[in-house]
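Hi, here's the filled form for the chain we discussed.

Project: internal
Contact: R.S.
Residues: 706
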Amino acid sequence: MKVISPELESAQTGLGVRPYIGALSIRDAIGDVPRLHWGLFYSDSGVPNSHYHVCIVTSSGYLVRVAVGDGGAGIQTIWCQSCEYPGNSNTWPGWSVVATNTIGESPALVEGPDGIIYLFYIGVTGTGIRMRTSSDNGVTWSADAVVASHASGQIKAVAAAYRLADGAVGLFWAWDAGTGGADTDIYYSLLLRSGIWTAKSAWEMTPVYGVNGLAAHYLSDWNLVFTGQGPADSASGVTVYHPGVWAVQMGDGGDRATGAWARTWIRRAFGNSGFRYYAPSLLATSTCYRLSYVEKYRGRDSLIRLHHTYRPLAGFEGKGWLEPVPFDYDGVTGAALTKDTDGQVYLIGPGKGWSGVVGAEMGLTARLERYGVVEGPFSSTLTIDLDNSDGGLARAGQTAGLLALRRGAEVRLSRGYVTTGGYGEAVDLPSFRLEGMEYLRSGEESTLRLHCLGGWQLLQAVRAERAGPYPGESIAGILANLAALAGLSVNWEGSASPESTLVPDWELKPGQVVLEAFRELMGRIPESARVSGSGITFRVLAGTDAADLHLGEGGQPVRQASYRADTPGANHVQVYGKLVTVSGGEPMEQTLFGDAVDFKEMDLVYRRLVKLFDPLATSDAAAAGSAATALAGFQGEAAVGRVVVSPVVNLELWDMVSVTDVAAGLNGSKRRVISIEEEFDAGRAVFEQRVGFGPEAGKSVGVIGG
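And the returned structure, exactly as it came back:
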C-alpha cells in the first residue's frame, strides 16, 4: 500500500467521509516526458549536393550550422551558416566556406569553455581528424590543425561532447582498420582545459563490423549513439552482424564506475532484412534524451525516412527508449537536433528547419462531474465526465487553452478526503492515456466524456515493427525494453527474484503484440505486476506477507460483500522443457521437468492435471518455476470475494487484506487484492470502491524441480 498520513488514514476509515478531488490534469506527454510537436519554420535550397551536417545553439543564442557539400570539381567542402535569431527564418544568412580539405562524412560541432566552438571533420585522406575553432559564433574560423590520426585504414565517423565540470572536450571517432570483417574500433581523446590533448585511446568493444555514424553527449558519463552493424551474433551457428542503432555508455564515475562501459541496442534489424541505419543525432534536454536517425530500406522499392525517439534523462542504456516513430522527412543524411538556452528544440535538415513546440497542459478539476476507474491484472481503464453545460469544451484540442485536451494526452487524477483538520489530502491514481472523447447531450445538460486507457492497454496497442533477439539480456532487462516501447518505466519492489536475472533464448516476433510478449515472459518469473504512476511495478508475492488492510469488523467498514469459492481449473501442473547442448560436435537433447501440486484442492476434488511446455525453460528449476506460476494463476481465478467500501485511496493491486465477516465464516482470512473498481459521482453523491480479492493465502503447494 502507498504510505499516507495518519490524518488521511483516519478520514477514509470514518463513517461520515467527505470526498476530496485533489486535481485532474491533462498534459501532452508520454510518461514523464513532454511531447514535442514539430512545425516547419525555415527552408532554403541548402548547400550544393549537401551531405551530412550538424548544428548547435551557442550560449549567446546563435544557431551555428555546419554541413558537408560539393564545392565543385569533386572537392568536398565544409560550409557554415550562423544565425543570430534562429526562431525567425527571415534572419537566416547565406552559407560561407570554412574548409575544403575533407571527405563527405559527418562533421562534429560542440561549444566548449569560454564560448569557443570546436569543429571536427575528417581530412581528405580519411586517416586524420582536423579541428577548427571559432570565438565569434561561427562567423570566422581558425586555421585547421590535425588532432588525431592513424597511419592506415579509414575514419568513418566523428562526434564530440563537452564535460562541464572541468571544461574538457571529448572527441570520439570510429576507425576501420581496412582488413575486412569486424575490424572497427571506437577511439577517444580529451582536450583538457589547458589546451592539451590526451593520447588517443581505444574504447575496447567486442568486434564491430561497421560504424557509419556517431553522436555524443556528456551527463555524468560519456554517452554515445552509433549506427552501423553491431557486435557479432553467433546464436544460429553463423556469425552475423546485425544493423542497428546502439546506445553506448562509458563510465566516468556517474552511473558507471570510471572506465566501465555498457552497450545495448535501441533499434535492431536482422542482417538480411534490408534495413540499414545512418546519421544519428543526440540531444539532452531538461527532461529527456532525444534521438533522431535515418532508417533506409532496400527491397523492391527503396525507403528512406527519418525516425525520432526519446527516453527519460535518468540513465542512458537501451532500456527506456520509446518505440521510434517515423518523421515526415526523407533526407538520407538525416537531421540534427539542438536547443537554445530557453529549451526551445530545433530539428535542422539540409534545406529545412523545424521547431518543436512543447505539448500543452491544463487543469480540469472544476469541471469534473464523475469518474470511474477499473484496475485488474493486465487491464486498467478510466472514464471521466466533464461538465460542458456552458459549451466551453466544444473545441477541445483546437483552441488556445484547450490544446492539451486531445487524444494521446496523459491524464492524471488524484483523490482523497477532507481530514478532521478541514484540509483536503489526495493520492494519485496511476496515469492514463486519453484514447477517445464523447460528447453527450441530455436535455439542457452537456457532458464531455473522456475514455482513457492504462499502461496495459498501451502495451496492447503496440506491435513489434521488427523481430529481434535480446542477446545477453535478462528477463528483467527484456521486460524493461518492452515496457519502454509504450513509454512505461519499470520498477522492482524489493529484491528481484533470481528467475528475473536469467537470460532466455527468446526473441520478439514481427507484428507481435507487445503485451502478449510481456505476459509470455512474465510466465517465467514469480513476480506479479501492476501499473503504478507512469510505469509498471513488479513484486514477489508470498502467502506469509502481513495484511496491509483489515476489512470488516474492527477495520474498514464494509457496505456490501459477496464471497465465492470455485474449483480451480487445475490443481496439478507439470511443465516440460528442452535443453539442447553440443557434445563432441553432436547435438544432445535433454528433457526438463517441473511439477507443482495444490494438495488441499486435490484432497477435495481429486486430481486435475494440466501439462504445459515452456520453450524458455533452461533447467529443471526454471520449469518448476513455470509450473508454480501457472498453478497460482489457476488458484487466483477460482476463489473470489468482493466488498464495497469507502475508497481506500492508498490501496493497490496485490496488497494483502484480512477479511472478517462472522456470518460468512471469515475471521481474519488473508486475501490478495486482484481488482479495484472505484466510482465518484458528484450528482448522485457516490464515492465508493469495489475491492475484489482472490483465494485464501497460504495454501499448501508442493514444487518439484526447484
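Let me know if anything looks off before we file it.
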